[in-house]
Amino acid sequence: MTNQFDLQPNLKGELVELRPLRPEDWNDLFAAASDPFIWEQHPENDRYQEQIFNVFFKEALESGGAFVVIDKATQEIIGSTRFHGYDPDHSEIEIGWTFLARKYWGGRYNREMKQLMVAHAFKFVENVIFHVGENNIRSQKATERIGGIKSGTVRKAYGSRPASVNIKYVIKRS
Which residue ranges make up each domain of the chain? Predict the structure, then answer.
């Protein structure tokens, strides 16, 4: 394993491509995010609103680890995800802040996106961490389907909201 984690590689699968988020992605990414149903179970459930999403977008750019998710068949931006909190001492990285447009729900796209990210992460760390809101049952099930194992809870703040309980999941490099 190498030391310096590459937080924004270009990752390509059969269905999706992940590339670093850029300022000019705003319109296309907001179009994908503006469906209230996407955020219904999320702790920040009003993220479909432009003003709230703008804060999310700005933080994503500043994070240095954010991606847009592109449907390879149409070349459309269909969502976003990011690496965060690289901790070489604990040999871990978090994957999170993930959303996909609703028509891409149901497993295949999320699974491939996460497989690409986890495979990349395992070049640098032993553990990949996910934090999922305690009421976000859809995302909990999706995380379990890709191999996430529950590992307790953490309190995490989203946007300007007070910290809320999240389920911590871990995937260990085998």
Answer: 11-128
For 102-143, what is each residue's pLDDT tens digit?
Answer: 999 887 999 999 999 999 999 999 999 999 989 889 889 999
The structure's pTM equals: 0.92
- What class does CATH assign to 11-128? alpha beta
**CA separation for the pair 76, 28 (Å, rounded):** 8
Whether the CB-CB separation of 109 and 134 falls below 8 Å is answered with no
Amino acid at 27: N
**What is the b/e burial string over 4-28, where b = at least 16 CB atoms within 10 angstroms of the residue's CB?**
ebebbbebebebbbbbbbeeebbee
CA distance 12 to 55: 28
Calculate Rg over the CA atoms of the chain.
15
DSSP string, the chain: --SS--SS--EE-SSEEEEE--GGGHHHHHHHH--HHHHTTSSSTTTTSHHHHHHHHHHHHHHS-EEEEEETTT--EEEEEEEEEEETTTTEEEEEEEEE-GGG-SSHHHHHHHHHHHHHHTTT-SEEEEEEETT-HHHHHHHHHTT-EEEEEEEE--TTSPPEEEEEEEEE--
